[in-house]
């Protein structure tokens, strides 16, 4: 499969979703490729479409506060909205199926991809089914984005958090959010690249 055709098809939807969706999806796709290249046993024909399509459902939600409600819920009077979160899974699954069929993607690969899109986030915050390595890779690639400068910077801006406080929060959650050991190492690598003074914690990083 030429994944570039799929990516070009996803782009207008991602631009229509949350302001971060295009960059988030592109960067998470890069992480998914890296995990596959590091030797994690996944099927790229399932993993790559699933990560490209995972958040496409936000394009179908007509709510001006969707980003705040699902990403930074304690700001701008935006309450965390589990319904919106759920909707991006169900709408995303429907749209993913439609796009893959229109692109004549191999029929046998569509159900496992759609299933990952539909379940990529657990609304209770539980980790994914560890027996499905494709799903684990998508989950880790999605969450690794949180460790990039993009997310850390917007987190600090939106929450007015200090760099050390943000850093401790991210550091503390590595084991909670990520499944694979390689993903945990990549998260640390990303944190190391950030040009902030993390105070005491810098000593633990370098
Ligand atoms: Fe999502
Ligand atoms: Fe995501």
SSE topology:
Elements: H1 3-16, H2 21-37, H3 44-53, H4 66-70, H5 82-102, H6 110-119, H7 133-144, H8 149-159, H9 163-172, H10 174-177, H11 181-193, H12 202-205
Helix pairs in contact: 1-3, 2-3, 2-7, 3-6, 3-7, 5-6
Residues 54-55, 88, 120-121 line the site of one fe (ii) ion (FE2).
What would you say this structure looks like, in words?
With 206 residues, the chain is an all-alpha fold. The protein has one domain (3-205): Hypothetical protein af1432. It has helices at 3-16, 21-37, 44-53, 66-70, 82-102, 110-119, 133-144, 149-159, 163-172, 174-177, 181-193, 202-205. The radius of gyration is 17 Å and the shape is globular. The chain starts with a helix and ends with a helix. 34% of the residues are buried. The mean pLDDT is 90. Bound molecules: fe (ii) ion (2 copies). The site of one fe (ii) ion has 4 residues, from loops. One fe (ii) ion binds at residues 24, 54-55, 142.
Number of strands: 0
Give the overall pLDDT as a whole number: 90
How would you spell out the order of helices and strands? HHHHHHHHHHHH
Proportion of β residues? under 5%
**Shape, principal axes of CA atoms:** globular
CATH architecture label name: Orthogonal Bundle
Radius of gyration: 17 Å
**Small molecules in complex:** fe (ii) ion
**SSE-based structural type:** mainly alpha
What multimeric state do the chains show?
single chain
* Helix content estimate: 55-70%
The low-confidence runs, each spanning 5 or more residues with pLDDT under 50, are none
- The termini sit apart by 41 Å
**What number of domains?**
1
- What count of helical segments does DSSP give? 12
CATH class: Mainly Alpha
CATH homologous group name: Hypothetical protein af1432
Q: Give a quick account of the main beta sheet: strands, pairing sense, barrel closure.
A: none
CATH fold-level label: Hypothetical protein af1432
